[in-house]
Amino acid sequence: MSQTVLKLSLNQINSMIREYAGSLADKTPPGAVFAAKAPGCSVTAYKSGKVLFQGTNHAAEAAKWGVSSATVKKDNQTKYVKPSQYAPPTGLYGVSHAGSDEAGTGDYFGPITVACAFVKENQIEQLRKIGVQDSKNLKDNRIRQIAKDIIALGIPYSLKVLHNPKYNDLQEKGWSQGKMKGMLHHYAINSLLEKIEGEKPRGIIIDQFAEPEVYKRYLLSESTTLQKNVFFLKKAESLSIAVAAGSIIARTAFVKHMDLLSNQLDMPIPKGASNLVDQAAANIINRYGEEKLYECAKVHFATTNKAKLLC
Ligand code: MN
């Protein structure tokens, strides 16, 4: 059987739970932390840190989570995945560069937002001072404040928002969420480059969510190609202040849209994917009909069916 086994840290397994929030299995095998269904692949993580990817798409799915330490087993052969040629050059984090990150991908309700920010060398220190860092470590109110400060400093950025109706249309047309993210990053980078015309970032870092080759295939399927000097790095927010700024702007936009949704629907709309989210979706169906979910949620998540059972 074709499968990939990775050994990952608890932190990484926690981010996987966030990423697969929409498709977690109700039952897990003994010793497992979670089991989830990804496109063409089932994923099972064990308390030991072992994560099993099984199915036709096992290699690509596993590649999202482990590169350097990844051992790919296929038909009883073992080969090591090469470190990416797209890794940012050392030194890029300390000079003028752009960074792109997204929010909302693991949340049942609300859009996907992607922001790409350009930080000049002499602004890096300022951004650190106002608290720019990985938005995952910050509470939403703090994130909003920092986003205001980033904008007040005149940091150029571009923001792309994929609203739920369009998201659901694309999903029905066969787009994976990975492709949607890929195209949003691509368009965000294009818009940023237009905005800062004349100024050349030494590099553009995308917070890596897919193997660069997979990302490039997404672009190719939409008849476009990678811009110059684009690099990929996992958890880039912790090393690149531009990616961290992008993550804060993207998260702020996402949170604002969630507030808007709560107001429009006249009920609290929880983030993420959980029992609380299932219940909120059920409440929406009861009050407004199932079609309403198409306008405010990522309807292919397992949440939709769970909600229908709660109605
Ligand atoms: Mn990210």
Q: How would you describe what is shown here?
A:
The structure is a single chain. The strands form two sheets. Strands 2-3-4-1-5-6 form a six-stranded antiparallel beta sheet. It has a five-stranded mixed beta sheet with strand order 9-8-7-10-11. It is of the alpha+beta class and 311 residues long. Helices cover 41% and strands 19% of the residues. Manganese (II) ion binds next to β7. Manganese (II) ion binds at residues 101-102, 207, 247.
> What is the ordering of alpha helices and beta strands?
EHEEEHEEEEHHEHHEHEHHHH
Using only CA atoms, what is the Rg?
A: 20 Å
The total beta strand count reads 11
Distance between the termini: 40 Å
General form: globular
Ligand species: manganese (II) ion
**What fraction of residues sit in β-strands?**
15-25%
